[in-house]
From TrEMBL, chains B, E:
UniProt keyword annotation of Transport present: yes
Family statement drawn from the similarity comment of this UniProt entry: Belongs to the ABC transporter superfamily.
Protein name: NitT/TauT family transport system ATP-binding protein
SMART domains named in the record: AAA (SM00382)
Pfam families xrefs: ABC_tran
PANTHER family: ABC TRANSPORTER ATP-BINDING PROTEIN, TAURINE IMPORT ATP-BINDING PROTEIN-RELATED
Domain ABC transporter as annotated: residue spans: 3-230
GO function term, MF aspect, one: ATP binding
UniProt KW Manganese keyword: no
Organism (species): Thalassovita taeanensis
Keyword terms of this UniProt record: ATP-binding, Nucleotide-binding, Transport
Automatic annotation (TrEMBL), chains C, D:
Key word Cell division present: no
ABC transmembrane type-1 domain ranges (all copies): 75-255
Topological relation to the membrane, as annotated: Multi-pass membrane protein
Membrane-crossing residue ranges in chain numbering: 23-42, 82-103, 110-135, 141-160, 202-225, 237-258
A Pfam family of this chain: BPD_transp_1
PANTHER family referenced in this protein's UniProt entry, alphabetically: ALIPHATIC SULFONATES TRANSPORT PERMEASE PROTEIN SSUC-RELATED, ALKANE SULFONATE ABC TRANSPORTER-RELATED, MEMBRANE SUBUNIT
Compartments, record wording: Cell membrane
Protein name in the entry: NitT/TauT family transport system permease protein
Length: 310, 255, 267, 267, 255
């Protein structure tokens, strides 16, 4: 009596909980026969869930996701990656040129070019929150894709960016960019990514959705123990990295992939709990920016009945 | 079968093209229509063949059809109108296929018309391989294949060079002499008209009306270039038309 | 006026048809009908709002755009990019095309190159363009210029090839200089072909606006469409698409007008 | 053989030229020269490796692709998408084009619609295509089909319009049925125009491969290029672009061959 | 000025087009060249005008140029070769501009040739507005504008209808009568040849060689259609050519 389920995923460490749940058989135990579908970006994954091509996905709360929720197509049902004080989180970067010009703290970024993939992306949100906190203005440059932003930052065509640590650290290490701050300082307890599904799954396939979340949470717990809290010991950490390596940086040799995976380890909320305060803050920001329609409420976006909320 | 034009008039938009033309095409005769450029000769021929309907007046046919006639009113066009993607045989069978004539029966008809137009050696040639004269022979063969009651020929020789024109005129005369057919033959060329016409209808400048009808009694096969009677007819026709032709030539078209 | 001895019947009519006639307003009617169906479907619910936006919402989005002045803020950069890029691409393209048309050596060298360049998707080269020309206007101009260049070249040398050779022989027979022949016979003779090639080039230029504005464009119709796409905001997406489509129809009309004026000598 | 009473001089020659001649191998030479310059420049360092990849590296990337069998893994899905999508787009396009060419009413209704559809960038519609056709092959086929559809329609009805009307009148004058005329005169007569339209349609199909494979494609030349582009891996990017370009040149050659065979009747 | 062809031969690839043609074009005479299709008449004319070079043999000119001659060897083409984007005046001034003749001087020349060709009323018409006959008149006016020493005419009337042809022949005769010019006149039409030629060169089928040269003494302005002497000449020419023309017409081209 296995239910077939398609899970949308990106080949990023932030999706590790699903990979772990799959590899360690947690999905199978929950009676789910999981099929991964890989995407190049979060946006098409959200659309694919709306169109029914995939059942569950993990992604940042973007304008696209909220719009789809507004059209009654998708629901957020759980939380995943979170910023947490004490755990290495997302970093604010500046280009070498900007750094040499004396921009060593985020406060000095007034009027500078801040790279984002798209208006309404999580990068946009982070930049905006930081700018608001510092009381400065940023010039947001949409570049569609993460690699394009990296290229633009390296070559000094944009001045600043904010990104997860496993990308930020190697970049900073090469000397082409410099880390000048932590996102967590500006957005404490930021709910970076969340688990979402189609509105139909959320409302009418409760058993399936709950089973998915449960297995996902198990995977997340393993991941946190191995790489975030490092309570499981070195062997377990090593094993976890090997497991994740099957999906992330698969085209690189293990030795080269390992630091990326280890550095990228941020907490995935225990029990897939959802930080609704942070989600609400994000939603309000989208509305304030005019990126989405003003009448959208938390109820439209979130189905809080599955997991613990904070 | 004979064709009758009964006070036919026509206009295209503001342009009056034909005005009150009445004419009978008697069976077994070649009626030539001459007239200055743009006087409506081609239009008249389209009316006769039922390809277009006159604004006023009637176009009638009377009398029995010849035996085995597949397409009573059959055109021969100035620019041959051969399908370039079919060879000689294919161009002829085209007009038989729709009448359900295929296989051996079609082959018999095709062989016959190819012999009559001296084309037997060229049955598999594509139009692009043929000279202009040969192309027009194929078009004539195609017309003969449907045993027409009346052949409607719109300047059939005017796209050919003078020498080929001579050759084809001889061919038409010998075709007619063997089995007389009814034909309406539109031309600009008075030499052609006096060579082929039993009756020559002279149209005036636009709007075309009948200025004169000249009958020539001499049998077709006795007419030769340089014959004084024909020359006289031709000179008279040229006198009738010279002014009109000059005026027509000087007309500015407001495209 | 004659005495037929058998039944006299009218000649049957068998002509007509196969002649395109202009029927006005049908296009408009079809268009309005489609819009009405979409409106009805989205209102009644049998077209899901995920599938199509409601036309009236698109219209009001458009009105908002206009009222807030954002329309111009998006349109003007796009038009500038289109203008600069396609003027670059088209002028260089016409130049190269004429030279290919005139010199066999250049033709032999460049035609295969252009043929190989044509099927390359311009978005594939976007990352390179960023390196070559930066993320500012430079790369946008370059992308549109490259996109309009190849079809213009092909159309132009085709047009030069199609110039009536008897006209050129005529020029030579009157002892006209090479340059006179090019200026007075070849170029005017190639103009119709060049203009009709321009239709395609500019349509491609418009299409490439979106690709060009993928990188680092804050304003522009393409950027607007991309943003709407990533926000899954169908009303805005369609509003943007309609603007591009209108732009395309408009350029085509402008070229038609230019043709009418400059090519009045055609039959 | 004559006795001129004045100086006898040869008649001066003033003809020649303005006639494209085929010069072989120049295209190849130019191509090789460009590659050699790129190789030299990247080796010597005056072309930065950010600007252009080293041609020999592109070649070895390509050889890797081939050796690992990845070439086929990428090429086959792309070719399938191109084939299915363009067969769909082209056949529907030809059908619609012929109908537009034959019926004035349809023409009046559809031509403005097609004209409005033409300048719409297909990538703008990607998010919609996912909803309409899913993220699997459906949306890729649909995108390529839509992209090839519009130019095919335009070329086809143009070709039908250009069929020699005297041939049609001839058919009518011999009493051929409407359907016979369409089948035996209109369609064969429109074939040259349709085939030359196909050249453009297929080039557009190839260009759209990249856009189509933006959506959820793991394998495919377009996906390969996109990935290479986002990783700034210029060797792979160029290897992919070269494959597409070769594909384009190849399709064009195939159409040329088909034209030679099927249109041998042309002058 | 006279032109001399000295044993000219030519081949295009494998096709031998002309073989050992020697001929002199005397000053002040119209030399007509007739011959079956494809025998190399146009090729010969291109050699005479220096537009192409023969494979073997020489093309020479001798004698002084007439006063004010801008372009000694001037063509009149079968399809008129008018620039469609220039009006009548513009088409004529085209051939003056390169000689630096502009403004009043050009206007004087243009007025003169327009009067001679009876085109004064049409100076601002575009070619598309003109009938075929008028277009060829413009082409003749353009040729006259450069005061040629020799006019090279390649079937100048064969694109026109028979009536316009008659009119233009009269015009050419009266032009020549007023001021005799030297001309080489290629035609298929024997009637034209006997009407306009002081000397008629008959070429054989390809590869073209000279079969015969016929001299006609009668002054041009006394020649009329139907004149017995001319008819006799024409009949003789037709006899010479008939077979060759038939053979040429039946040739399959292997395109
Ligand atoms: N379908 C049409 N629509 C409008 N005008 C037409 C049409 N067909 C012919 N005409 C005009 O009608 C007039 C007569 O045309 P028609 O072709 O019958 O003349 P014609 O005597 O055959 O001339 P030609 O000797 O040049 O062949 C011309 O002025 C022509 O421009
Ligand atoms: N540029 C060329 N290249 C190859 N063959 C040519 C060329 N020009 C002419 N020919 C061939 O040379 C032969 C003579 O051509 P030309 O045009 O001189 O004949 P013509 O006597 O003028 O014929 P027509 O009476 O049909 O005008 C023909 O067979 C023609 O196909
Ligand atoms: Mg006519
Ligand atoms: Mg010739």
């Amino acid at each position: 009596a296995n239910t077939k389920v398609t899970v949308g995923a990106l080949a990023f460490t932030s999706h590790a909980a699903s990979f772990v749940a799959y590899e360690r058989g947690y999905f199978a135990e929950a009676g789910l026969e999981v099929d991964f579908k890989f995407f190049q970006a979060a946006q098409p994954m959200a659309v694919a869930i709306a169109s029914g091509d995939a059942d569950f996905g993990v992604t940042a709360i973007s304008g696209g996701l909220i719009s789809l929720a507004e059209k009654g197509a998708t629901k957020v049902i759980g939380g995943a990656l979170s910023e947490e004080k004490g755990i290495d989180g997302q970093k604010i970067l500046v280009s070498d040129a900007a750094y040499q010009a004396g921009i060593t703290t985020p406060k000095l970024l007034d009027g500078k070019k801040f790279g984002i993939t798209q208006s309404g992306s999580s990068f946009h949100y982070m930049g905006a929150k930081m700018a608001a906190a510092e009381g400065i203005d940023l010039n947001y440059i949409p570049l569609q894709k993460v690699p394009a932003v990296i290229g633009a930052l390296k070559s000094g065509q944009i001045d600043a960016w904010a990104i997860v640590p496993h990308i930020a650290k190697p970049l900073a290490g090469s000397g082409a960019v410099h880390i000048i701050g932590d996102v967590a300082d500006y957005i404490p307890d930021y709910q970076v990514t969340s688990v979402f599904t189609s509105a139909n799954n959320a409302a009418n396939e409760r058993a399936k959705s709950a089973a998915f979340l449960a297995a996902f949470a198990k995977g997340a717990a393993d991941f946190n123990a191995a790489l975030v809290d490092k309570t499981a010991g070195d062997d377990a950490a090593e094993e976890m990295v090997k497991l994740v390596h099957k999906y992330v940086y698969a085209d690189r040799p293990y030795d080269k992939a390992k630091p990326g995976i280890v550095n990228g380890a941020m907490r995935i909320n225990a029990g897939a709990a959802l930080n609704t305060t942070s989600v609400k803050d994000q939603l309000d920001w989208f509305i304030a920016e005019g990126l989405i329609k003003g009448h959208i409420t938390m109820e439209t976006l979130v189905d809080p009945s599955y997991v613990e909320t904070m | 079968m004979q064709l009758i034009l009964d006070s036919v008039s026509h206009r295209y938009g503001d342009v009056r093209v034909l005005s009150d033309v009445s004419l009978t095409i008697p069976e077994g005769q070649i009626v030539c229509i001459v007239g200055p450029s743009g006087c409506g000769k081609s239009t008249l021929l389209r009316f006769l063949g039922g390809l277009e309907r006159p604004g006023a007046g009637k176009v009638l046919q009377s009398g029995p059809l010849p035996d085995g006639c597949l397409n009573p009113l059959t055109y021969v066009f100035q620019d041959f109108a051969l399908l370039p993607w079919r060879d000689v045989t294919g161009n002829i069978s085209l007009v038989l296929e729709d009448h359900g004539i295929k296989g051996a029966k079609a082959a018999r008809i095709i062989d016959d018309v190819l012999i009559r137009t001296k084309l037997s050696d060229f049955r598999n040639a594509l139009p692009k391989q043929l000279s202009g004269g040969m192309k027009q022979r194929v078009a004539i063969a195609r017309a003969l294949a449907v045993s027409p009651a009346v052949m409607l020929m719109d300047e059939p020789l005017s796209a050919l060079d003078a020498q080929t024109r001579e050759l084809l005129m001889d061919d038409l005369v010998s075709l007619w002499t063997r089995t007389p057919f009814t034909a309406v033959y539109v031309t600009h060329n008075l030499a052609e008209a006096v060579r082929l016409g039993h009756r020559i209808v002279v149209l005036s400048r636009r709007p075309g009306t009948i200025r004169d009808v000249v009958e020539i009694d001499m049998p077709l096969d006795q007419r030769r270039a340089g014959n004084p009677t024909l020359e006289a007819h031709q000179a008279r026709l040229w006198q009738l038309m010279r002014e009109e032709a000059e005026a027509a030539d000087k007309e500015l078209s407001n495209v | 006026m004659s005495d037929p001895n058998a039944a006299t019947t009218p000649v049957p009519f068998r002509g007509g048809g196969f002649k395109p006639e202009r029927i006005r307003f049908v296009g408009l009617a079809v268009f309005l009908a489609l819009v009405a169906i979409a409106e009805w479907g989205t209102r009644a619910g049998w077209i899901s709002n995920l599938t199509l936006p409601r036309p009236s919402d698109v219209l009001s989005t458009f009105r908002d755009l206009y009222d807030t002045g954002l329309l111009w803020k998006h349109l003007i950069p796009s038009l500038t990019r289109l203008a600069v890029g396609s003027v670059l691409g088209v002028t260089i393209g016409i130049g190269v095309g004429v030279i290919i048309g005139l010199f066999s050596m250049v033709r032999a060298g460049l035609v295969p190159l252009v043929a190989a360049l044509f099927p390359i998707p311009k978005i594939a080269l976007l990352p390179l363009f960023v390196i070559w020309f930066g993320i500012d206007e430079g790369s946008k101009y370059a992308l549109i210029a490259l996109g309009t260049f190849t079809p213009t070249v092909v159309a132009t040398y085709g047009a030069v090839d199609n110039v009536d050779r008897t006209l050129i022989r005529m020029g030579q027979s009157f002892g006209l200089s090479w340059w006179s022949i090019v200026r007075k016979i070849v170029l005017p003779g190639a103009l119709p072909g060049i203009l009709s090639g321009l239709r395609i080039s500019l349509a491609i230029g418009i299409i490439l606006l979106v690709a060009a504005e993928m990188l680092g464009a804050q304003y522009g119709i393409g950027a607007y469409i991309l943003e709407a796409g990533s926000l899954y905001d169908l009303e805005r997406l369609f509003a943007g698409v309609v603007i591009l489509s209108a732009l395309g129809v408009l350029t085509s009309a402008v070229i038609g007008w230019v043709e009418k004026r400059m090519l009045a000598w055609r039959i």
